[in-house]
Amino acid sequence: MNRRIAIRDLTLALGGLTSLPAWATNGWTTHSFQLNQRYFKANEQHLLATIVETIIPESDTKGAKSLGVPAFLQKMLQDCYEPTVSENIKNGLTATEKAAQKQFGKSFDDCDTQQKQQILLGFEKNEDTRLKDFYSLVKNLTILGYTTSEYVQTGFLKYNMAPGHYYGCVPVKK
Amino acid sequence: MANLALDAKKQNTYDAIVIGSGISGGWAAKELCEKGLKTIVLERGRDIKHIADYSTAMMNPWDFEHRGQVPLDIRSQYPKGRAAFLREETLPFALKDGVQPFVEEKPFTWTRGYHVGGKSLMWARQTQRWSDLDFEGPKRDGFAVDWPIRYADIAPWYSHVEKFAGISGNKDGLQELPDGEFLTPIELNCVEQHLKKVLIKEYDNKRHVIQGRCAHVTDPKPIHTQQGRAKCQHRNLCNRGCPYGGYFSSNASTLPWAAKTGNMTLRPFSTVHSIIFDEKLNKASGVRVVDTNTKEMIEYYARIIFVNGSALNSNLILLNSISNRFPNGLGNDNGLLGKFIAWHNYRGKISAEYDGFLDKTTDGKNPSNGYVPRFRNLFSQETDFLRGYAAGIGAGRGSSSSREGIGEDLKNSLLFPKINNHWGVSSWMMGECIPIEKNHVRLHETLKDPYGIPQLVTSAEWTDNDAKMVQDYMEQFTEMFTKAGFRNIKAVDTKSNPGADIHEMGGVRMGNDPKTSMLNKWNALHLCKNVFVTDGACMTSTGTQNPSITYMAFTARAANYAVSEMKKKNL
Fold first, then answer.
1. What is the C-alpha to C-alpha distance for residues A151 and A72, in angstroms, rounded to an integer?
2. CB contact under 8 A, B193 and A168
3. Contact present, B535 and B314 (Cβ < 8 Å)
4. If you count residue pairs, one on A and one on B, with CB atoms under 8 Å apart, how many are there?
5. E strands present in B217-307
6. What does the DSSP assignment read for B294-334?
7. Which domain holds residue B295?
8. Interval B385-412: pLDDT, tens
9. What phi, psi does B286 have (nearest 5°)?
10. Which is nearest to B126 in space by CA: B387, B433, B371?
11. Which end of chain A is more exposed for a tag (fewer CB within 10 A), N or C?
12. Is residue B189 part of a domain?
């Protein structure tokens, strides 16, 4: 159930509140990420978005980029992690670009999907723990941002804020 | 000038003072206001209005800017040890660093709820009654002192609070866990029912799995709709505050009810410093409060005082209530105030998997959980440790998706999680701790909190009895799970800190004899009979049950007693 329906049901359940509290009427759906534009340079932002889209790409279902996950990643890195962690992300971005040049003689952006995947998977098993940590954090945050998006929660993961019941023993739906 | 002072005193005079607005303070307020007493409720934290102030209650996962994770600059404002538990969803109820520093002489985890409603907003909502097997424990097994009451004294008050609060549960007919006034039960799931059957058969009908009785309105009665509360929606987002009033809290239930009488004054930002003792009248005349915004000290006066500051803070207030008559704390001639602190032993945890019922799953969310009432040493001593443990238990099917790989495969795995090929089962113990004199709290000699109140020193540690009990829990549950056909059974002693259960109790215990106890059978101080302590501080022993419902019943009982004594001019 989405928030709008949940709030409608809340009003019904309580027999019609005369006035809803501020949190029910203001809404957060329009909140835009307040990003510090100097935190990641434009080229770093672009590269990060390309990596995110490589991890979860667009096809007949939406990918991470079109769900705003790159901005979410920047927000998380900016607000929730120690500076050393974010520094390592910047290092990782530089390393990504270098790896593309070294392995394929072109920028990461110009690599095809398979080449991009190959570079990132190379980090996953890399002996350099800094590269490993870089990819692991970017991947985990991408998954977090993607799977908690409204599109994935309501369209695929059967998100229901208020199921209204609990049945302890029902057949598994095929 | 004299008249002004007199007016000020009159203005600050009520019939009753209630210290604390949590689960027991809310009940004191409701009962006293309903009986017509002008009552001031003092709360040290800010106000949280039902519905209006549950700012995260209706937020979806994607509405949280950091998807629940708390940004570093905010995180740094909270105590280091607790930072791991901070979430954006529940941040409004977290306690910031430095508000009330205390001294852990030995490690103690002290969770506090400093806002109107206290921990009643954040509790686990389990409400199991005590039986005489619990009340008779200290006497039978020779520890602490005998409780001055028995089940028959408290049973009608359990009913009284259950009907109003709204308790869901089955009538299970168990002597060790008396039935109450229950709303429609929540059902056990297939695996929990399976375990229930196995235990009855394998243990000669002496071990049981029941659905935990819980403070959820599963089918609202008129008394609940009159409170403005609606049916539980099974959201399991309780710890954000429930805008439906689906579970019981002071905010949703007792406080608005008390306010409706017109007799309640709620004063947030009011940290109680001490209780004022009038030596001429030989009773308490009021309390000193520090306004946490202005740091100004203000006095309030009343004929009766209910101390519901949460167990350790109620100890602190009494210890800090120094007078010529009571140089060691209010009512503390015997020197027992602050001693015999106990809690619940939540150290043991166990998990397992089960391969049965693979064609079955659950639907919706269970706001409660399965419960195994105490079976050890119930009717006679049978182990090398005293007392026993209850346990929470839960089984679930769940689904998961692989996070391996990259690209389209990863995406499809995330979008289409597969139902697990087994059930998960988990259990956690809730053991009775034996109160001992050595486990205590006291005032620090020099250190003060930001309001000039001495800091509390906590000095409490596990005993051998606790360690043996953890061992027994792990062995017995491994055996029970094995008999049920569960596999991959993992038992662990988490060695969590005392207090991590958030059920700290005692220090102002009840008893028959003023020489060996602080409170009489009506929860009044033996030596200052217009002061009532009805939160966890009053507990002579701990039982195994989640204690809130018992505090509620004690409070309602004591409040009604206090009012009748006032009418008889005895107070």
1. 15
2. yes
3. yes
4. 166
5. 264-267, 270-278, 283-291, 297-301, 304-307
6. T--EEEEE-SEEEE-S-HHHHHHHHHT---SS-TTSTT-TT
7. 14-123+131-149+253-343+502-546+557-571
8. 999 999 999 999 999 999 999 999 999 9
9. 170, -165
10. B371
11. C
12. no
Q: Which residue has the tokens 């120690």?
A: A82
Asked if residue B432 has pLDDT above 90, the reply is yes
B51:A21 CB<8 A: yes
- For residues B27 and B253, what is the distance between their CA atoms, to the nearest angstrom? 9
Rounded to two decimals, the pTM is 0.95
Query: B71 to chain A: which residues are within 8 Å by CB?
Result: 79-80
Distance from CA of B38 to the nearest CA of A (A): 29
Among A6-10, B154-158, B233-237, B408-412, whose mean pLDDT is lowest?
A: A6-10
| Nearest CB to A163; choose among B364, B406, B408 | B364
Domain-located, residue B284: yes
Asked if B464 is an interface residue toward chain A (Cβ–Cβ < 8 A), one would say no
For position B23, which CATH number holds?
Answer: 3.50.50.60
**Per-residue pLDDT reduced to its tens digit, B313-342:** 999 999 999 999 999 999 999 999 999 999
B104 within some domain: yes
Q: Which residues of B touch A148 (CB under 8 A)?
A: 61-62, 67
Quick check: B404 contacting A, CB < 8 Å? Answer: no
Select from A72, A120, A169 the Cβ nearest to the Cβ of B406.
A120
User: Which residue ranges in chain A fall short of pLDDT 70?
Assistant: 1-38, 174
Alpha carbon distance B292, B496 (integer Å) = 33
Nearest residue to B373 (alpha-carbon basis) of B351, B388, B394, B383? B388
* Secondary structure (3-state) at A4: helix
ipTM of the complex: 0.92
Which candidate in B47, B49, B54, B58 is best for mutational testing of the A interface (most A CBs within 10 A)? B58
